[in-house]
Amino acid sequence: MRPRLYLAGPDVFHPASAALGAAKLALCREYGFEGLYPGEGSDETSASTSSPAIYRRCLAMMAGADAGLFNLTPFRGPSADVGTVFELGFMAAAGKPVFAYSNDGRDLLDRLRPDLVRGGDGSWRDAAGCFAEDFGNADNLMLDEPLALQGRRIHRVAAEPEARFTALDGVRLCLDAARRHFGLVRA
Amino acid sequence: MRPRLYLAGPDVFHPASAALGAAKLALCREYGFEGLYPGEGSDETSASTSSPAIYRRCLAMMAGADAGLFNLTPFRGPSADVGTVFELGFMAAAGKPVFAYSNDGRDLLDRLRPDLVRGGDGSWRDAAGCFAEDFGNADNLMLDEPLALQGRRIHRVAAEPEARFTALDGVRLCLDAARRHFGLVRA
């Protein structure tokens, strides 16, 4: 019985969602896992396209997964896709192993920096005066720390801009870590 | 014994974080709750300011809370603060009641629309070709649906721009719903 990995990420919004999902599912098999991809094209029930139906389907997939693999590449802003982050919180709370990558190699602070000013106390503030964390994290600490608590980190890959939402090197890094976690040996 | 509410939001990054926290804690008391505010100034242990320490402190607060009250106002982009969203996922997974507000009255789609084009199939796509949800939700469906599954919704308040991160009307709406949920009668 192959361990099941829930494949979370903004991939589901990408025009190549079906192909991305198929590529990730193939990689999962290569590493000894069964992938669960929530995007369109991953199941036959095209009826499940209402907002509540999609949510329930994702919850059921997460419930049936042994671990989660999260694409935390910044999406429509300096931080990861909020849907993916909700799922990270959901699976972390369930005590399941979580693995994550980002196709942006920078710290959150470096992404924010062009819009920040340094205050007299040394802290970084944005245009609204809001504090910016300076912990060397890939994103908000709520994304880095659940990984750290499990002895892991967000794998950062400095992908080319045109491959920002399609590069899969981070998936391989996560699968390699997951394989060690589950004690699988590559066939 | 007053039910305990975890007060999640980007409030903790605001320059007036301590005052915002104090105001929210006072509102909680007014409605019969004990608030738990994770921001600076809310506790005496200023040593707990490393990234892992903050994370552990928030986890402990969530574990000790009976429910969560989430500020899902868009933060540094079209969607809610990812730290807050992680906590929403965490508490939803724990089966605890969640209450939420946003100080932006619009649908996610309306916030994205200036940067979207409508494809031949009627779907909305951003500059990267990524699909934008058109469900009438306040944010990504992963934020609206856990509320809906509990018979609630994200309370939307069209706050003035200068009060975007400080308006508390949404807190009152959440507290009113929480009071009904916990069967409390206002003193």
Layout of strands and helices, then pairs:
The structure is a homodimer of 187-residue chains.
Chain A: E1 4-8, H1 17-30, E2 34-36, H2 51-63, E3 67-71, H3 82-93, E4 98-102, H4 108-112, E5 117-118, E6 124-125, E7 131-132, H5 141-149, E8 154-156, H6 169-181
Parallel strand pairs in A: 1-2, 1-3, 3-4, 4-8
Antiparallel strand pairs in A: 5-6, 6-7
In short:
By secondary structure, chain A is α/β, with parallel strands linked by helices.
Describe the protein in words.
The structure is a homodimer of 187-residue chains. With 187 residues, chain A is an alpha/beta fold. Chain A has one domain: 3-Layer(aba) Sandwich (Rossmann fold), CATH 3.40.50.450. The first copy, chain A, contains 6 helices and 8 strands. Chain A has helices at residues 17-30, 51-63, 82-93, 108-112, 141-149, 169-181, and strands at residues 4-8, 34-36, 67-71, 98-102, 117-118, 124-125, 131-132, 154-156. The first copy, chain A, has a 5-stranded parallel β-sheet, with helices on both faces. Chain A has a 3-stranded antiparallel β-sheet with strand order 5-6-7, with no helix packed on it. In chain A, strand 5 and strand 6 (124-125) form a beta hairpin. Chain A is globular. At the A-B interface, helix 2, helix 3, strand 7 and helix 5 of A face helix 2, helix 3, strand 7 and helix 5 of B.
